[in-house]
Amino acid sequence: MRPGDFSSMIRGRRRLPEAYASLGEHPFFWSESKIRVRRRPHLILARIRGAGLFACLCLLPVAAFAGYDPSGLRLPPGFQVSLYVTGSGFHRNQRGIPAVVAMSFGPDGTLYFARTANRLKEIYGRSDARLYRVPPGAAKITAATEKQFLFGPLLDDPDELTVNRRGEVFVSTRHATGYGSIYRLNPNGTATLFAGGPAPSGKPLLQDPEDIAFDQADNVYVIDSDLGVVVKLDPNGKVLNRRWLTGIGRGRTLTIDSRDNLWIGSDGSHDSEHIDRHGEILRVQLSSGKRETIYSGALPSGMSFSPGGHLFVAQRRSHKLFALAADGKRVEFATFSGRAALRTLAFPPVNEHTRKLGLAGDLFVMVFPVLDYPVREVIRISGPFDDFVKRGAGGKP
Q1: Model confidence, pTM
Q2: Which residue from 226, 231, 149, 227 is spatially nearest to 182, judged by alpha carbons?
Q3: Where are the beta strands (DSSP E) in 277-329?
Q4: 271-287 pLDDT tens trace
């Protein structure tokens, strides 16, 4: 049974609340077992064929769940956590802001969010949306105050976004007709098509663009999950190489370190199952194009470098957050259990602005309750991240 099959089974008959329908995305159900579902009010029983057993999947009504449960987060000693962005009034009684899937900090400490089409449809009945822009400082967004946080025009399925050092926001989008686009938004919210869009003839440049990264010369790199390539563009959007890097499968995340190495998080080849053992993290030297597989076995849903240059990775499917030491050794950092799960993460850029704001050096993580996540929150984790990784790798802090 593949991820999502269970969701399809229980959605196929009488419609159930999203909390129950999303159970199929929980790793517990990723097995080859054949599952039959029985429905009762606020109760789902799954029978596993051959086992003669019934598993109770949910006993409480959705109204009993208020959102992400912080008691499910396990951090090492010496780290503190606080709530940074939350919301209310968007989805039943759930805490959180609606449909957010990606986030990135600007150089002034402003936090931007992109929102995904499938969650937008659940809440708004449409797949286009404006971005969120949250000024520095903790925030709560409500239906009454949402307008002041909206940024830029409506965009089709804004999936990933990244902010460059000038504060320009680059957003990847996917249109229902099969082409992808990259938009550039200046700090006042004006948007222009930067790359992609419908092709007058032939194949479009982009089909399913995901993450975006910038090198020190301000060239732009875009990873396309459907095509399995990284496209290289100049600072003005001119295509330098539409197949700068190929053979990366379902590429999802991108980031560049201080030495101009491009790091790629891939979900594995297009014909592989969407499970952790097929994921990998690659490092590519921009100067030579040399490619190395640094880590295998995790589906990275988000990656960000700490101030000391250690890569922190969100492993959404296994509800873990880990770091990679200089030698590629995995260092476990945090786990999420119960109704606590994570989507992605971000360290703010380290500069004079973020130091004055007290943001520099902290890690921000997008979280949600496992059983129901059309809305999500952002928590802030503070502590000695780089010393922790060095100790975990067997070195001295």
Answers
A1: 0.83
A2: 231
A3: 280-285, 291-296, 302-305, 311-315, 320-324
A4: 777 666 788 999 999 99
Residues 6+ apart with CB under 8 A from 346: 103, 104, 105, 111, 302, 304, 363, 364
Helix (H, G, I), strand (E, B) or coil at 247: coil
Q: What is the C-alpha to C-alpha distance for residues 326 and 310, in angstroms, rounded to an integer?
A: 7
CA distances to 53, 204, 205, 212 from 239, rounded to whole Å, are 57, 12, 9, 14
Kindly report the backbone phi and psi dihedral angles of residue 6, in degrees, each rounded to the nearest multiple of 5, phi listed first.
-65, -40
How far, in Å, CA of 188 to CA of 98, rounded? 23
Write down the pLDDT at residue 17: 35
pLDDT digits (tens, 9 = 90+) for 2-44: 444 433 333 333 333 333 333 333 333 333 333 333 333 333 3
Token pair in block for residue 192: 């222009």
Cβ atoms of residues 169 and 182 within 8 Å:
no
**pLDDT tens digits, one per residue of 163-175:** 999 999 999 999 9
Answer whether 227's CB lies under 8 Å from 207's CB.
Answer: yes
Q: How far apart are CA 194 and CA 181, in angstroms?
A: 8
Tokens at 37, concatenated: 């579902």
**Exposed (0-12), middle (13-18) or buried (19+): which is 292, by Cβ within 10 Å?**
exposed
